[in-house]
Design a protein that fits this description.
The protein is an alpha+beta fold. It has three domains: 2-12 and 87-148, 2-Layer Sandwich (Alpha-Beta Plaits), CATH 3.30.70; 19-84; 156-219. It is 39% helix and 32% strand. The chain is built from eight helices and eight strands. It has an eight-stranded antiparallel beta sheet with strand order 4-5-3-2-6-7-1-8. The protein is globular. Keywords: Plasmid, Transcription, Transcription regulation.
């Protein structure tokens, strides 16, 4: 059983029903979709947001396509039921056409040309090969990793994308995690030929992926 992970960028920029409203409201950011299901023409989603949760509730209440929602302000989690999403409709069309399973979470990222979603799909080797060649027009694919799927894999290569591993390895090599710190985001960015803002975001995601697993192991 094989998996493939990468970033999809919709050329029209419509990633999520709230995307336009969120872009106009810097106080709220969508970070990760933990679960999403399609039920008929509706989508049911559990996502994590950061920022002003009262503003998020106002945005959800004002969005015509959102039929129901609940927000847990303490954690930033939002449960949403909505009826319109061209990007999610095309995503589920792809999954169905190639008999692929979506392995959450879905992460929103600015690492490539435009804002996109990083996801992992699981299926046969032939399906994985075919999907990378047959991405529909209007969607750009940035492949990152392909390999044998292991549920809950805990190795570094399972937890980080190739681009994140490059940043992490450069950060360690340059002394970013030494005390006192011996490298800056700008120096790491120069080493991996990326923008400092991108490196900053990737380091945050790396730490968010690795630290909870380390703490879980320590607690056993």
């Amino acid at each position: 059983m094989r998996f493939a992970s990468g970033v999809l960028v919709w050329n029209d920029g419509a990633l999520h029903p709230l995307e336009t409203a969120i872009e106009d409201t810097p106080a709220v950011t969508i970070d990760t979709t933990h679960q999403i299901n399609r039920i008929g023409e509706q989508f049911v989603e559990l996502s994590a947001f950061s920022g002003d949760m009262e503003m998020l509730e106002r945005l959800l209440a004002a969005e015509e396509s959102v039929q129901d929602f609940a927000v847990t302000r303490e954690t930033g989690l939002a449960y949403m039921v909505y009826s319109q999403s061209p990007s999610m409709t095309s995503l589920f069309y792809i999954l169905t056409a190639y008999s692929l399973v979506l392995a959450p979470p879905i992460e929103y990222t600015d690492e490539y040309t435009d804002r996109g979603i990083r996801l992992t799909v699981v299926g046969t080797d032939s399906a994985i090969t075919q999907i990378t060649a047959d991405i529909p027009p209007g969607i750009d694919l940035y492949p990152e990793r392909v390999g044998e799927y292991v549920p809950g894999g805990g190795q570094l290569e399972d937890l980080l994308t190739e681009r994140q591993r490059d940043v992490f390895e450069a950060a360690v090599k340059l002394g970013y995690y030494e005390v006192p710190r011996e490298a800056t985001h700008e120096e790491i960015a120069e080493a991996v030929e990326r923008a400092p803002a991108t490196v900053s975001e990737q380091l945050q995601r790396i730490e968010a992926n690795l630290l909870p697993r380390y703490l879980d192991k320590e607690a056993i």
